[in-house]
Amino acid sequence: MKQKKIIIAIDGYSSCGKSTLAKQLAKELNYAYIDSGAMYRGIALYFLEHNLDMNNHDLLIDALQHISLSFDTANGKNDLLLNGVNVEAKIRTPQIANLVSPIATIAEVREKAVHQQQEMGKLKGIVMDGRDIGTTVFPDAELKIFMTASIAVRAKRRFLEMQQKNTPQNLVEVEANLIQRDHIDSNREISPLRQAADAILLDNSDITAEEQLQLALGWAHEKKVW
Ligand code: DC
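Above: inputs. Below: predicted complex with 2'-deoxycytidine-5'-monophosphate.
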């Protein structure tokens, strides 16, 4: 049977290792990888850097017209470009982590991001991770994975990641931020974080990154990908 390129949608809670799995899968399958959360973070950064009043909806909507998002994928990178400038480091700070979830609830923000994400998936051969990829962005994705892990495991992972990036936060703060973001992401009106009916649940609390990669590759091969 002829094999085909597919779309792989990975959704789940914050700090479940979605991007780790998505990047590995994309590398193994020679697919593109898109971190949809980076796009929301880029929009949040623009709002922050322009000192926009977060309560002024009209100003925020107007500002969206001045935002262009793209990715620099040279040399295996996946860096977000905001209006052509590499902002990868700037969008990973605790300040942006605190700001981004409320901004991602705004309808016009989501419309802009989702439209661009759908365009990027037109040629298939793509792995995209986020919160609404299997439910809203690509409801027809051939493979959907919904990731979860215990809050303790997730907080520890994020804590270690922040330490490595030299932006340390204490573990209690990290856990509180994750809980708050999950709450906002799961309870917003538009495209809340949900497991799609046809998504495979992957709880990685007790498995290694390599084990989860092998599982996901198995699922991808069942879809006859190349
Ligand atoms: O994956 P992340 O932590 O970089 O995502 C940052 C925020 O963006 C997250 O709190 C929720 C939002 N987000 C979203 O609403 N929809 C997506 N597809 C991806 C991220």
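The longest strand covers residues 7-12.
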